Amino acid sequence: MNSKETGFLVQGALIAALYVALTMMFAPISFGPVQFRISEALCILPFFTPAAIPGLFLGCLISNLLGTAVIMDVICGSLATLIGAVGSYWLRQHKYLVCLPPILANTLIIPWVLRYAYGSTDLVPFMMLTVGIGEVLAIGVLGNGLLALLERYKYVIFRQSRV
C-alpha cells in the first residue's frame, strides 16, 4: 500500500470516527423522530476529499448501530448519507451546492424510514418538512460554516501525498 492509499484510508477513518463521536456526544438530539445531528455538518467534507464518502457512510452506519436505530434505519439512513456524500463529491466544483445532495437525500428517504421502521403516524410530507429543517440547519448552516473555516486550511488538513 502506498502513502496515497494510506492517506485515503486514514482520512476516511478519521471522518468516520469524528461522525460517530459527534453523534454519540449529542445522542439525545441525534436520534428519534425529531433529530438534529450535528455530525451531519461533516457532509460537506466530500468538497475537500473523496475519502469523506466512505468515511461518512461508515460513520453513519456505526452511529446508527450504536444508537437506538432499527435495522431498516441502519441500512436506509446510512444509504441516504452515502447518496448525499456521492452527490456532494459530484458537485465539488460548485462550493455552495455541496450541501444540497445530503439535505435532499435525507429529506426524501428518512421520512419513509420513520413511517415504516418506526410506525410514525405523521404524514410523510410533514416529516419531510421536519427532517428537511433539521438537515438545512445541520448541513446548510453548520456545514457551510465548517466549509468556510476548513477552506482556509484545506492544503494543510487535506493535502495529498506526493508519492
From TrEMBL:
Q: Which InterPro entries match?
A: QueT
- Entry keyword set: Membrane, Transmembrane, Transmembrane helix
Question: Which chain regions cross the lipid bilayer?
Answer: 6-29, 41-64, 70-91, 96-114, 126-150
Record has Transmembrane as a keyword: yes
Keyword Transmembrane listed: yes
Q: What is this protein called?
A: QueT transporter family protein
UniProt organism field = Enterocloster alcoholdehydrogenati
